Structure formats: structure tokens, C-alpha cells
């Protein structure tokens, strides 16, 4: 902890702040604001009620009006303070509102719920306090099949990532460690596909997936993305740096090529594979366009598709949408937090040394 | 437990290798008997490592035959040739512990666990790496890595050991130690070893037989002293021995075939027997640095340019009047200084004589 503090408060000037300290901290502060501002805004907004979301100008923290339960009323009543300048008998008191309409409100005193008092609505000032509308989250589980979407997303992400790592690392092994006729051509073809935008192949890909009977199935999302040129290239560049002599030594040790792959190449490429795993998880989890095309039935929806479905043509359920967005962010943030050290080391070492 | 190493010989019959149109091994015949320590030596680019890889099976051959034991192994993959190889970079598996490095090969041939353990214990004790079994290669010193690499080869009980410049990454002192250890290992295991190096000192000290290679061709194959005493050509004469043999160009007198006129104009006596020089022939005279002695009546006049005093030895570096460089090795210390002119003599029977044109020796081969 002391380390963290001394790191965070490090300065160039001894004792007093050098001007470069000011510049650095200002720069970092802007960076933090730019990066975390939207996320924090999102998280706080996800705890706001629909009314609070519709409010203009918006407020930073989620507020809710205080309520009270009184005898004789089924629902909780919202509390107001009556302004001191009011001409009514309850000026300056706290009252509970029972009805409101046409610029006038009907209120009761808290200790006398029987007597209805009428007064102009402008005299009432809402009593508000910070409150988190957790029902945004609980609703997701009650009103929508959130767990189903979560399962679909997780299944696609996990299976597609594993499949992709397997296929890509085997291709990269062949392209980096075997001499064969046409190796360069194959590699160029693989890299060449990087230059073709996904939208161009969308229709043919859709036709193939439909022909293979994978339309509206999670496999239709998983399989077309199993081999990625980026992954093959990234792993190949890393595997090239593994000395051939180690492979020769393994061959002299009577290891089959299959065994060389699993026991030598895969463990030694672990940093690059970790990087690709992180990228793959992020790609798959956040993938939207392709699932949108392949998956049309609600029970097959991924989280991203479900989020999209909250946005109707006429009405958008912002509260649910924001809550679900937060939940969708969490797994990817967790993955990133645990694996981020591999990204740095992995990217550094894929550059070769 | 004892290591039971079957030992076989290795034969190359007109072995060839080319990459595209470039022939790097130009037909080599070699017969290495079982139990022999054979060293391939030559300057870099001579094809010695390629030749070793051809024997190992890691490099397919383009022509000829490779026979291990009495079996032609041209089409047998490396894994099934019953050989083990120690690589220049050691090529240890970096992600495995020393123990896993040693056991990897045995696991691949489905050796029972208990047997693997026995063998690893025996080998690691022999190579003094038994304290290191849990470490990873990156935590070992160069010498320790080298031992593990050798251990990995030994534990598989191969028929033939192949070493590809195993000592070139070690510092000078360690190299001398490991040299002794590999020689001791050979004596102890008694099986065939083929060893590649560019260092002729390693070759001389370790080998039973040396094969000198140049540009993909075998220049000479024989015991170390045989190569030293009777080099077949100028290349072998210059390559074996340290410091290098001195070469003096000259022409045999037209009437007296024991009289040689050097290009400097100085005249020296040649032995009348043992060499087949013709009167009037252009020859190159070879004299080892230790055969040259300062003498007042010496026929050669050396202008000394540098003197190295090592205490027990001293070296004079200089040139003759035509610029031919000479090295003189004296045991003991010398009083000669830089810039002096020293007359040198040599024993007539200590010379080597080569035909300048063909570079072949003129010694009577009988």
C-alpha cells in the first residue's frame, strides 16, 4: 500500500512541485477523466429510475424522492416540503402527497392522514436523497431471460476462443516451422484476408452458414470466426523466435510432431497465446454484427443482441438497457484485469528480441 | 544401475547434399569404427555441421549412403536412428525442469516410470547435476546447461553420440574443463562419438580420428598426430597445429634437387630422401614455428615485428625480406627485441614440402 501511495504521489521536484509535475498530473487527470468518466456515468445512471433518467438537466448521482407508508393508503406516498411562503395552513411542514392534478395537489399531514388538504402544486418542494434503484437489475432477471443471454454469450465466447486458439496455433506452427512448397503463398493469402472488410463477405458467409444448417444456432456464430488471420499472424511471428534447435532436439528425443506441438510449441508460445486469448474473448464477447445476422430467435440472443432489443423504435427502456450494459461490461473487465500483465509482456515479446 | 550403451560404427559413402543448385557436401567417404571419437574440424562454412545433421537424420541427404552399424539409414527418420545429439545452443527445453528435460526422451519411448528415475539418477550423478534436477535451464550456468544437454543425450543410451560445437558458447577456462570431461565420458561409455568443432586444439586433444573438411570436401582423415606429422596438403598443414605452420615459397634448383631457392633469394637445404621433389619444381616449404631456431649461421633472416613473452614460451612474429610472414616459437624466454634482425635455422628433416601448384604434399607415402 505504501508503495502504491509513493508511486501515485511521485514527483520530479524534491519537496515542491516542479512544473513538469503539474503538466504530468494534469495530463493524467484528463486521461482518467476521459477514460473513466463515461464508465462512471454509465454505472451511476444504471441505478437511476426511469423518471430520473428522463429528467433535464441530468444529475450526477441517482436521486429518488423519499416516501412514507401511511395507514389507509395502499401505496407509499411521496413526501414534500411545503414552502414557507405558501398561503395554505401547512406552510413549512412536511406532507405526503395523495393526489395531484391540474396544477393542484392534495396532501395529508403525516400525523393526521385522514384530513385532506388542497394547495397549489408549485408550493411543494420534493424531498430527495441519493438512492440506488437496484430494481433496474432485479428486473433483468424477472422480466427478461437474462441468464439465458448470459449463457449464450459465455458459451459462444468460451468455445469460440478455445477453437480459435487451437486452429490458429496449429496453422501458425505449420507456417513458422515447416518448410513446404507454397508456404509463403499460404501466408500471404492469410494476411491478404486482413484487407477484406467483413461486410464484403457477409452475404456469402451467411449463405454458407445457412447451407450448413447453422442458421439460428450458436455454432453458426462460433465456427466462421474460428480462424482469424490476425491470430495466425501474431502466433506465427512469435513461434518464429523459438529456436529450431529445440525442435530438432525434441525430434532426436523421439517426440512425434504432434507431441512437439503440444509439449514444446504450445508451452513456449504461452505469452502470445495469452494475448490472443484476451483479444479473442473481447472480440467474441463484444461481437454484434454477425450474431445479429445469424441469430434471430430471442432464446439464442447474446447479451449484445439483447441490449439492442431494448432499444425499440418508439420507446427505449433506458433503465434496463443501462443495467444490462453494466453487467455486460463486468466479465470483460474482469478478464482484462487478471490477464492484462500478459498483454504487456506478450506484446513486448511478440516483437521479437 | 549401469548404463548399457551399444556401440556401432558409422560409414559415409559418397554422401552428398545440395540446396538447390549449390552443393555443400561434395561426396564424402568416411569410415568411423565403433567406439571411436571422431572429430570433424574445418573453418566455418566447410559443411561440418551439415554433415553431422545428415548423419543425425535432421537433414535429408541428396546422394550417397549413410550406414550406421550395418544398416543403410538414408530413409530412416532421425528419431529411429538410435543417435543422440548435443547442440551448440544446448537446445534445452526452457519450460521444463532439468529432470523433465532428461526424462522427455525416455517418456517418448514409453519407458516405465521407475526405470526413468533410475536412469536419471545414474546419469545425473555421473555428470554431477543431481543437485539441479528441480531447476529450469535459465537458472543454470553455461557449464551446467552443457552438462544437462550431455545428460539428456546419455540417458537415452544412444548407439552414437553427435556433438555440434558443444563448447563454443563457454568461456575459455570452462571449455578446457568440459573438454576433459567429454573425453572422460567417452572413455567411460566407450561408444562412438562424432564431434564437430572449428577449434583445432579441441580436435587434437580429444580425437581418436580427425576429419578435416573444407568447402564440403574431406581434406584428410586420420589420427591427430598423423595429421600433424604428415599433412596431405597445404590446407591441412596450415589448419592443424597452433600457431600455424610457416610457409615459404621457392623453386628447387635446376641441377641440385636438395637445394631450394626461396623467393627472397635465400637458399636452404632440403632433405634428399623422403620427398619426391623434382629439380626445377615450384614448391612450398612448411616449417612449424617450434622448429625454427635463432642461430648465427641461419639461412633465413627474420625482421622481428612483435615479441610475445609468456614466461615459459616466447613467440617472435616477423617477416622475411619479401614480406613473407613467419612465426617462431621458442620454449623459455628470449632476449630478442622488436626491430632486430634474427638469423634462423632449422633441422632439414623437420620440413614439410608441398607442390605449390597442386598444394599436395611431396612426401613419399609409403
TrEMBL record, chain A:
ABC transmembrane type-1 domain sequence ranges: 150-339
Family stated for the protein in its record: Belongs to the binding-protein-dependent transport system permease family.
Subcellular location: Cell membrane
Keyword Cell membrane attached: yes
Protein name: Alpha-1,4-digalacturonate transport system permease protein
CDD domains, per database record: TM_PBP2
Keywords: Cell membrane, Membrane, Transmembrane, Transmembrane helix, Transport
InterPro entries xrefs: MetI-like (IPR000515), MetI-like_sf (IPR035906)
Membrane spanning stretches: 22-44, 149-174, 186-209, 221-239, 260-283, 318-339
Annotated PROSITE patterns: ABC_TM1
Topology in membrane: Multi-pass membrane protein
UniProt lineage: Bacteria, Pseudomonadati, Pseudomonadota, Alphaproteobacteria, Rhodobacterales
Pfam families (alphabetical): BPD_transp_1 (PF00528)
SUPFAM superfamilies on file: MetI-like
Record has Transmembrane as a keyword: yes
One GO-annotated biological process of the protein: transmembrane transport
Top-rank lineage group of the source organism: Bacteria
Gene Ontology cellular-component terms listed: plasma membrane
Automatic annotation (TrEMBL), chain B:
Keywords on record: ATP-binding, Cell inner membrane, Cell membrane, Membrane, Nucleotide-binding, Sugar transport, Transport
SMART domains for this protein: AAA
Tagged with keyword Transport: yes
SUPFAM superfamilies: MOP-like (SSF50331), P-loop containing nucleoside triphosphate hydrolases (SSF52540)
Record flagged with keyword Repeat: no
GO cellular component, one term: maltose transport complex
Domain ABC transporter: 10-240
Residue runs in coiled coils: none
InterPro entries: AAA+_ATPase (IPR003593), ABC_transporter-like_ATP-bd (IPR003439), ABC_transporter-like_CS (IPR017871), ABC_transpr_MalK-like (IPR015855), ABC_transpr_MalK/UgpC-like (IPR047641), Mo/tungstate-bd_C_term_dom (IPR008995), NA-bd_OB-fold (IPR012340), OB_MalK-like (IPR040582)
GO MF terms, alphabetically ordered: ABC-type maltose transporter activity; ATP binding; ATP hydrolysis activity
Pfam hit, one: OB_MalK
Family that this chain belongs to: Belongs to the ABC transporter superfamily.
Name of the protein in question: Multiple sugar transport system ATP-binding protein
Amino acid at each position: 500500500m505504501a508503495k502504491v501511495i509513493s508511486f501515485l504521489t511521485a514527483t520530479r521536484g524534491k519537496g515542491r512541485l516542479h512544473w513538469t509535475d503539474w503538466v504530468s498530473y494534469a495530463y493524467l487527470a484528463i486521461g482518467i477523466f476521459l477514460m473513466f468518466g463515461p464508465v462512471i456515468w454509465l454505472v451511476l445512471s444504471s441505478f437511476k429510475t426511469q423518471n430520473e433518467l428522463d429528467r433535464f438537466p441530468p444529475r450526477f448521482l441517482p436521486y429518488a424522492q423519499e416516501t412514507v407508508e401511511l395507514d389507509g393508503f395502499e401505496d407509499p406516498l411521496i413526501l414534500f416540503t411545503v414552502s414557507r411562503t405558501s398561503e395554505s395552513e401547512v406552510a413549512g411542514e412536511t406532507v405526503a402527497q395523495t393526489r395531484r392534478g391540474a396544477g393542484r395537489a392534495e396532501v395529508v399531514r403525516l400525523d393526521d392522514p385522514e384530513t385532506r388538504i388542497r394547495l397549489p402544486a408549485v408550493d411543494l418542494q420534493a424531498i430527495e436523497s441519493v438512492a440506488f434503484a437496484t430494481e433496474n437489475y432485479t428486473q433483468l432477471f424477472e422480466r427478461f431471460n437474462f441468464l439465458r443471454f448470459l449463457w449464450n454469450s459465455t458459451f459462444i465466447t468460451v468455445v469460440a476462443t478455445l477453437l480459435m486458439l487451437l486452429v490458429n496455433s496449429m496453422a501458425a506452427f505449420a507456417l513458422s516451422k515447416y518448410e513446404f512448397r507454397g508456404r509463403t503463398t499460404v501466408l500471404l493469402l492469410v494476411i491478404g484476408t486482413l484487407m477484406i472488410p467483413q461486410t464484403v463477405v457477409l452475404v456469402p458467409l451467411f449463405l454458407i452458414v445457412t447451407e450448413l444448417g447453422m442458421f439460428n444456432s450458436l455454432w453458426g456464430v462460433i465456427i466462421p470466426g474460428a480462424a482469424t488471420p490476425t491470430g495466425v499472424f501474431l502466433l506465427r511471428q512469435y513461434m518464429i523466435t523459438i529456436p529450431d534447435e529445440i525442435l530438432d532436439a525434441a525430434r532426436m528425443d523421439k517426440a512425434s510432431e504432434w507431441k512437439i506441438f503440444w509439449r514444446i510449441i504450445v508451452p513456449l508460445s504461452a505469452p502470445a497465446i495469452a494475448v490472443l486469448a484476451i483479444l479473442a474473448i473481447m472480440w467474441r464477447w463484444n461481437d454484434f454484427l454477425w450474431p445479429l445476422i445469424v441469430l434471430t430467435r430471442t432464446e439464442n440472443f447474446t447479451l449484445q443482441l439483447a441490449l439492442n432489443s431494448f432499444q425499440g423504435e418508439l420507446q427505449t427502456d433506458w433503465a434496463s438497457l443501462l443495467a444490462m450494459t453494466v453487467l455486460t461490461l463486468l466479465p470483460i473487465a474482469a478478464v482484462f484485469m487478471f490477464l492484462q500483465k500478459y498483454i504487456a509482456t506478450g506484446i513486448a515479446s511478440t516483437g521479437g528480441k | 544401475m549401469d548404463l548399457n550403451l551399444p556401440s556401432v560404427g558409422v560409414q559415409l559413402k559418397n554422401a552428398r547434399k545440395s540446396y538447390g543448385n549449390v552443393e555443400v557436401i561434395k561426396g564424402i567417404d568416411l569410415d568411423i569404427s565403433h567406439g571411436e571419437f571422431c572429430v570433424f574440424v574445418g573453418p566455418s562454412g566447410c559443411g561440418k555441421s551439415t554433415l553431422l545433421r545428415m548423419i543425425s537424420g535432421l537433414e535429408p541427404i541428396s546422394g550417397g549412403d549413410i550406414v550406421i552399424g550395418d544398416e543403410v539409414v538414408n530413409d530412416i527418420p532421425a528419431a529411429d536412428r538410435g543417435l543422440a545429439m548435443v547442440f551448440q545452443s544446448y537446445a534445452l527445453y526452457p519450460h521444463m525442469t532439468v529432470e523433465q528435460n532428461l526424462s522427455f526422451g525416455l517418456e517418448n519411448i514409453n519407458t516405465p516410470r521407475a526405470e526413468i528415475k533410475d536412469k536419471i539418477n545414474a546419469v545425473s550423478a555421473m555428470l554431477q547435476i543431481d543437485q539441479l534436477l528441480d531447476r529450469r535451464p535459465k537458472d543454470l550456468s553455461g557449464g551446467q546447461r552443457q552438462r544437462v544437454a550431455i545428460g539428456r543425450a546419455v540417458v537415452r543410451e544412444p548407439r552414437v553420440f553427435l556433438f555440434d560445437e558443444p563448447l563454443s558458447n563457454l568461456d575459455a577456462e570452462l571449455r578446457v574443463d568440459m573438454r576433459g570431461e567429454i573425453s572422460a565420458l567417452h572413455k567411460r561409455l566407450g561408444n562412438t562419438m562424432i564431434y564437430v568443432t572449428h577449434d583445432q586444439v579441441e580436435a587434437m586433444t580429444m580425437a581418436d580420428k580427425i576429419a578435416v573438411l573444407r568447402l564440403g570436401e574431406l581434406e584428410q582423415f586420420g589420427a591427430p598426430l598423423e595429421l600433424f606429422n604428415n599433412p596431405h596438403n597445404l590446407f591441412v598443414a596450415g589448419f592443424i597445429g597452433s600457431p600455424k605452420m610457416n610457409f615459404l615459397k621457392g623453386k628447387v634448383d635446376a641441377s641440385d634437387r636438395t637445394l631450394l631457392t626461396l623467393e627472397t633469394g635465400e637458399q636452404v637445404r632440403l632433405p634428399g630422401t623422403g620427398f619426391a621433389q623434382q629439380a626445377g619444381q615450384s614448391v612450398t616449404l612448411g616449417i612449424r614455428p617450434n622448429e625454427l631456431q635463432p642461430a648465427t649461421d641461419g639461412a633465413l633472416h627474420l625482421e622481428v615485428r612483435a615479441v610475445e613473452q609468456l614466461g615459459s614460451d616466447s613467440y617472435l612474429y616477423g617477416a622475411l625480406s619479401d614480406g613473407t610472414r613467419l612465426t617462431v616459437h621458442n620454449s623459455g624466454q628470449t632476449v630478442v627485441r622488436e626491430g632486430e634482425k634474427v638469423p634462423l635455422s632449422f633441422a632439414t628433416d623437420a620440413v614439410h614440402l608441398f607442390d605449390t601448384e597442386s598444394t599436395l604434399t611431396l612426401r613419399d607415402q609409403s
